Amino acid sequence: MAAANAPITMKEALTLTSIGINPQFITFTNVTMESDKYICVRETSPQNSVVIIDMSMPMQPLRRPITADSALMNPNTRILALKGECFHHF
């Protein structure tokens, strides 16, 4: 089958390392992509942060100092869902 007749075409849109993501964080555990709009990357050391890549402007990643077990962007709006332990101090 010729590539022109393939039902799916693939094109590299972004290399995460080109925008400063350390390769050790490019794993299924640390990266989420719910749609073609956003990519989230959890960085865990030396400091905990979440990097949000808006694919409409991928060269301007948004890095926030957040500790989370997982992070996920809403596929339609700029809402970030975080999962982690809650610590209550009494």
What does this entry show, briefly?
The protein has a domain at 20-77.
Describe the main β-sheet briefly: 4 strands, antiparallel
Proportion of residues in extended strands: 25-35%
Instruction: Output the number of helix runs.
Output: 0
Shape type: globular
Structural class: mainly beta
Rg of Cα set: 16 Å
Return residue spans where pLDDT drops below 50 for at least 5 consecutive residues: none
H/E topology pattern: EEEEEE
Helix content: under 10%
Strand order of the largest sheet: 1-2-3-4
Alpha carbon gap, first and last residue: 66 Å
Number of strands: 6
Mean pLDDT: 86
Protein architecture, described:
Helices cover 0% and strands 28% of the residues. It is mostly beta strands and 90 residues long. It has a domain of 58 residues. The strands form 2 sheets. The protein has a 4-stranded antiparallel sheet with strand order 1-2-3-4, with no helix packed on it. A two-stranded antiparallel sheet has the order 5-6. The mean pLDDT is 86. InterPro entries: Clathrin_H-chain_N, Clathrin_H-chain_propeller_rpt. This is Clathrin heavy chain.
Secondary structure layout:
Blueprint: E1 31-32, E2 38-43, E3 49-54, E4 62-64, E5 70-73, E6 80-83
Antiparallel strand pairs: 1-2, 2-3, 3-4, 5-6
Protein name: Clathrin heavy chain
InterPro entries: Clathrin_H-chain_N, Clathrin_H-chain_propeller_rpt
Pfam families: Clathrin_propel (PF01394)
Sum up the structure in keywords:
mainly beta; 90 residues; 6 strands; single chain; 4-stranded antiparallel sheet; globular
